Amino acid sequence: MSELLNGRGLSLVPKSDAKQGMKDYKSDQEVRWCPGCGDYAILAAVQSFVPELGLKRENMVFVSGIGCSSRFPYYMNTYGFHSIHGRAPAIATGLAASRPDLSVWVITGDGDSLSIGGNHLIHALRRNVNLNILLFNNRIYGLTKGQYSPTSEVGKITKSTPMGSLDKPFNPISLAIGAEASFVARTIDSDRKHLQSVLREAAEHNGTSLVEIYQNCNIFNDGAFDQLKDPEQRDDITLRLEHGRPIVSASKAVRRAADGGIEVVDRASVAEEEILVHDAHRADPSLAFALSRLDEPAFEHVPIGIFRSVGRPSYDEQMAAQLEEAVAQRGPGDLDNLLLAGDTWRIG
Amino acid sequence: MTKQVQQLDRVIIRFAGDSGDGMQLTGDRFTAGTAEFGNDLSTLPNFPAEIRAPAGTLPGVSSFQLHFADHDILTPGDAPNVLVAMNPAALKANLGDLPRGADIIANTDEFTKRNLQKVGYDANPLEDDSLAEWRVHPVPLTSLTVKALEGFDLSKKDAERSKNMFALGLLSWLYHRPTEATISFLETKFAKKPDIAKANIAAFTAGWNYGETTESFSVSYEVKPAPLPAGVYRNISGNQALAYGLIAASVQAKLPLFLGSYPITPASDILHELSKHKRFGIRTFQAEDEIAGVGAALGASFGGALGVTTTSGPGVALKAETVGLAVTTELPLIVVDVQRAGPSTGMPTKTEQTDLLMAMYGRNGESPLPVVAPMSPSDCFDAAIEAARLAVKYRTPVMLLSDGYLANGSEPWKVPSAAELPDISTAFATAPDEGETFLPFKRDPETLARPWAIPGTAGLEHRIGGIEKADGTGNISYDPDNHDRMVRLRQAKIDGIAKDIPALEIDDPDGDARVLVLGWGSTYGPIAAAVRRIRKAGGKVAQAHLRHLNPLPANTGEVLKSYDKVLLPEINLGQLALLLRARFLVDIISYNRVRGLPFKAEELAGVIQDVIDSE
Ligand SMILES: Cc1ncc(C[n+]2csc(CCOP(=O)(O)OP(=O)(O)O)c2C)c(N)n1
Ligand code: SF4
Ligand SMILES: [Mg+2]
Q1: What pLDDT does A4 receive?
Q2: Which residue's alpha carbon is at the smallest distance from atom 22 of ligand 1?
Q3: Are residues B235 and A63, on separate chains, in Cβ contact within 8 Å?
Q4: Residue A298 has what pLDDT?
Q5: Residue ranges making up the domain that contains A30
């Protein structure tokens, strides 16, 4: 059992003998997102990344909810389940918990995962089922044509909020850390290299990995992440989170503040040793949480990368271990013995 | 002095007390002794929804009714012959059900001024003549127990706790029940506290001896064993039988069982039971809500497990969208609804048959699925296997409609051997069968079921989902004619199951009855008992009982049309009647009571007689 608890990750998923390429993972279905949608870039990034894992294609499953982003599984030449709004984490939990030989991916939108499916998301995270959850955050409801979402900024003018939205948005990273997630990361559709580096670690991680992907919806919320893409400002805004490296952007740095928290300061004003060094593996989540709050108000400085990646037994391996333990203690179940257990009597 | 022994053919006892008095345990033990003795029996527990209502109050009364006989019986009995009342609340709450002349064994120690006041008795009913119509046996159960346990190192309070065992001992003497099983039960239950075990056994024995010596009981009763078919028996409740049926289904289908569930009365015991049997490779998942429970079960089915979710009406309401997804993705799934009184929270511990139309139609779109309803506690075992058989063979969600009455009621069950159970296994798809392309929605011409191709199977990678699929390929399709075809195909698949289920059987001994009484689900026992009464009195009535509610047995219409009158008692406002009237244009006579309680045989006999008389 202890061996198992060291982490299943992808260890039980069979490896492919053949060399694979991106084309092996493209399905024959015509991709139907709006031209220019950020989903294309993410699809291409995933299709060109997964062959690297060297897994048998038939042992990979993409499960999604409902939304533009949730069409994703149709385009992957793997097993796929396009389910119902918000429920993908629940469906994927049943699949992953009963099939340790599968690499299970959840594709979800900000509405799908944080409105209707919020409950399933937080419970999947705390359980730490072997799932990779890719949260396509375009800060809008795309498929239903542009209502504000739980990640839309306050005051958002949409069809359903002509005078501006009132509700404070969720910060998906803070939410995930608060929900006991063992792997939490943020990346962006336009930076394929970064996106793929995050996916790589997410795939190998034992338990649930949550990857928030900033995704542009050029129809209903165009330019939501422009600051992070604009060559003029992106290097100053983006705080790179890399384990063991100082947390900096081109011009800014993060350090411990006098009040015990952390703060963003002018990089030139601090000595190198004062800059906070990122520790993604820190057991205590409070620093990772503090990092997730640096992006308030939004887009002044945005941490990108892996906030948190800690080892914790996954739900599915522990569930399997309990079954094994039950058999080890009392032998495999026998139906006749079961039915005859307890008080019985014979007639005739 | 040897006391007189009187022979009886059947007895109905009700143990009633405060919910802290251990009445369920007392009832269970009396049942075990009765089963061991060889009587046929049927039980009905009745407990308050509150875990601990204030002691001594009416809402805190918990009871357990047991009917046992020297012949086969069908119900826990209409009205008790004997009431054991552990306090004034128990007397007051149950007196209304007690026929004149019945025995009341009352624990006089608890009939204190304060306890009497709590339930609104101005005077002690044991002392005035308000109970003159009954045979009252006042027994100071508490003080006799304390006295019997004087030699034990127990506080008075702890000693008092054993009074239910004293009562059990007394009743065991009164009805000649065997004692060994109860003694060894107590030894096992309190194995870690041998002093408590001894005290309880001493109280039990003292109760027995009290019966033997006291003058309050001059007669004891004997109920001979019933001539049941030969075999090994055990007593089983509906929930336990259902759980065992699911385990058996998993073994017989050669599929690992995955249960996704969220606790809810009266279904939780199925989750509890299944979670004990991990040795069978059963995974039980207590989800964050009912939606996640069914979602996880469906995900597991997609992966090749036997996915099951267990709940009650409010949970079925939440699961509806996912069940629809299972309908359209055509994956096996078992949805167990242990019905309870609604709407909304209703009366969680009370029974009803009010979810039939929800099971049939409570989803968006045309989303047909099979509905199966067990007819007795032990039948929950077979019904679960049947639900699994249909789910697996036809790749469909199946609704299994149990109810609170079946769930908690119990009866002796002739234990089948695994070898007698049907093989319900199926084959997963292993390779595309036409050229190179795999068609995930190509149907078996016989069953119209689609292939079950599970992840991990090379060459069969495919995508399914809730969007309408093109016939055959399963690709997304908005084609109008394709949708019409798929709607009809899904319906035809379910309708076709009628060829694969037994015909509706009619019980009409002389074959000349003009009135048919029809039922479904848990009303079988009371209806059959009522039918017996009518026949015993020389009346003629036929009986038929539906176990498959969708599709209906192929001969249902023919059966309904061959009687002048069809009477259909239901614990709802006529849900099956509505379906049958619409489908067969038969003028069904409904009898409906929705009191959260099972029908009584006497009540139904009256209704049947009225219909016969109106011929
Ligand atoms: C039960 C249910 N409620 C509502 C909808 C309508 N609906 C579909 S997608 C969606 C929101 C999608 O937003 P998001 O998850 O952010 O995905 P995006 O389209 O932006 O990728 C809504 C409200 C639905 N399909 N099902
Ligand atoms: S509506 Fe927005 S999110 Fe949806 S496909 Fe179009 S651009 Fe993409
Ligand atoms: Mg969105």
Answers
A1: 37
A2: A144
A3: no
A4: 74
A5: 2-224
Tell me the whole-structure pTM to 2 decimals. Answer: 0.95
The 10s digit of each residue's pLDDT in A243-272 is 999 999 999 999 999 998 999 999 999 999
Q: Is residue A78 part of a domain?
A: yes
pLDDT at B1 over 60: no
Question: What phi and psi, each to the nearest 5 degrees, are found at residue B534?
Answer: -60, -45
> How many domains does the structure of chain A reveal?
1
CB contact under 8 A, A346 and B256: no
Q: Is the CB of A89 under 6 A from ligand 1?
A: no
ipTM score here?
0.97
- Burial code (b: 16+ CB inside 10 Å, e: under 16) for B207-237 equals bbebbeeeeebeeeeebebbebeeebbbbbb
A249 part of a folded domain: no
In chain B, which among 24-63 make CB contacts under 8 A with chain A? 32, 35-36, 38
- Asked if B231's CB is within 8 angstroms of A346's CB, the reply is yes
Kindly write down the DSSP assignment for every residue of A24-37, as one continuous string: GGB-SSPP-SPTT-
Chain A contact set for B416 (CB, 8 A): 339
Chain A partners within 8 Å of B297 (Cβ): 94
Residue of chain B minimizing CA distance to A78? B461
* Amino acid found at B159: A
CATH number, domain of A87, equals: 3.40.50.970
Q: Which of residues 112-131 of A touch B (CB under 8 A)?
A: 119-120, 123
**B113-155 pLDDT per residue, tens:** 999 999 999 999 999 999 999 999 999 999 999 999 999 999 9
Any CB–CB contact under 8 A between B417 and chain A? Answer: yes
Give Cα B176 distance to the centre of its chain: 28
Using only C-alpha atoms, what is the Rg of chain B? Answer: 27
Angle at A250 between CA A247 and CA A256, to 5 degrees: 30
For B365-391, the pLDDT digits (tens) are 999 999 999 999 999 999 999 999 999
Position A240 in a domain: no
Domains of chain B: 4-223 (3.40.920.10), 234-420 (3.40.50.970), 506-613 (3.40.50.920)
Contacts of B38 in chain A (CB under 8 A): 345, 347
Beta partners for B517? Answer: B543, B567
Q: A15 lies in a domain?
A: yes
